[in-house]
Amino acid sequence: MALTIPSAPGSSGYLDMFPERRMSYFGNSYILGLTVTAGIGGLLFGYDTGVISGALLYIKDDFEVVKQSSFLQETIVSMALVGAIIGAASGGWINDYYGRKKATLFADVVFAAGAIVMAAAPDPYVLISGRLLVGLGVGVASVTAPVYIAEASPSEVRGGLVSTNVLMITGGQFLSYLVNSAFTQVPGTWRWMLGVSGVPAVVQFVLMLFMPESPRWLFMKNRKSEAIQVLTKMYDVSRLEDEIDDLSAAEEEERLRKRTVGYLDVFRSKEMRLAFFAGAGLQAFQQFTGINTVMYYSPTIVQMAGFHSNQLALFLSLIVAAMNAAGTVVGIYFIDHCGRKKLALSSLCGVIVSLIILSVSFFKQSSDDGGGLYGWLAVLGLALYIAFFAPGMGPVPWTVNSEIYPQQYRGICGGMSATVNWISNLIVAQTFLSVVESAGTGMTFLIFAGIAVLAAIFVVVFVPETQGLTFSEVEQIWKERAWGSNSGWGSSSDSNNNLEAEGLIEQGSPRS
């Protein structure tokens, strides 16, 4: 007999039948508090990526060897990325084995330790080791926060709640510019800039002690009574039973699978190959469409417009960071109203136009020394880029990756896709200036525009719409894409034979 899954509470049909049970973004203070607490990991992520640009100016003043070595400067900046790659790669396993809560606590301890090491560093080499520790914490947090929030969220508002983590990232970047500005006249400037980052990590550690473990993770670890206690704080009685039924059905499906999975198992399963390709591809395109380089290049764009004041450049950085955060707020609304796919595509269309405007302005600027008009055109292109990128390609990759993988693979695949994001980030950061020197700034932004076109095609072809779907319904999408529309939870034994062949379930597992 085929396995049949009960109607899931988050499905569109269920909520159409019981619209009074549809939860709003602010509908449950407990879930919102959990989301904000977990999202502090995103704040750490954003703060660290933004603060180092200002701190490096003062690090060079304190350490002559850093001032004389561009390699040391690049290493101080990029070592956090190296740590994040390692943290993201290991974070999936930590999440699956120890749980989302312990993974968050571990990330906080490592990050706080790194902040202390950086603030007290007697030489640049100790500073680099602190940057590595901070990166490890950021990497683990970048995997954990979206998954933790997604597993505790009702399906109808899951996109908005997960996007809150991205809002915290952009908010952290904005905060870093404020902190950079605040400590410019304080003795030990860069030590304060870097050391203050440990405060949110300590705050999150304390708050997480009072937060529950993910109910879905608890249920899959056969700690059902604990999971139900958490669920009773999230749902009323009328919906609680259906949520438990959904988890029970998911547990039954997981029971048919192998007890543990490894990284190679992701590539042995056809469904998982398709899901990981979509998720990792989104993460890669988020970076290769140039978000970090566009933000990095903003001071130069201001200079093109005829303004050469350092204070104005800092002010622009604040404006850009504020626009990024404001755009993410817009994304939180639209991601659950318009859907992930439509939001990503509309975002990419605007990004393409914006990058073309930037490219044209740089081409014209290089051929026309007057340049005031084209400088302002470049500023317009920058503003449009942030306005279009922030609501869509900012939150969508993280949201989609938090919901497209089955429970058994969610930690591992989330970690692998986050690793792809960090590696892509590192590649772009390390090659951008070289590409500008060899091809020119206008051509570089045109290359980014071409990549954005490929990203739009990728989204159309490979990324499914997951708006309002339960995790079980999302998993069904990959089964249908892998084996055809007739395969699924209620399909014949042929589907189970396919799963056995790919190692997804144990040989001889019961069919009913």
From TrEMBL:
Membrane-spanning ranges: 30-59, 71-93, 105-122, 128-149, 161-180, 192-211, 274-297, 312-336, 343-363, 375-400, 412-433, 445-463
Annotated GO biological process: myo-inositol transport; polyol transmembrane transport
Keywords assigned by UniProt, alphabetized: Membrane, Transmembrane, Transmembrane helix, Transport
Low complexity composition bias: residue spans: 486-498
Region (Disordered): 486-512
A Gene Ontology molecular function term of the record: transmembrane transporter activity
A single Gene Ontology CC term: membrane
One Pfam family it belongs to: Sugar_tr
Topology term for the membrane: Multi-pass membrane protein
Major facilitator superfamily (MFS) profile domain sequence ranges: 34-467
Annotated InterPro entries: MFS_dom, MFS_sugar_transport-like, MFS_trans_sf, Myo-inositol_Transporter, Sugar/inositol_transpt, Sugar_transporter_CS
Name of the protein this chain belongs to: Major facilitator superfamily (MFS) profile domain-containing protein
Organism for this UniProt entry: Microthlaspi erraticum
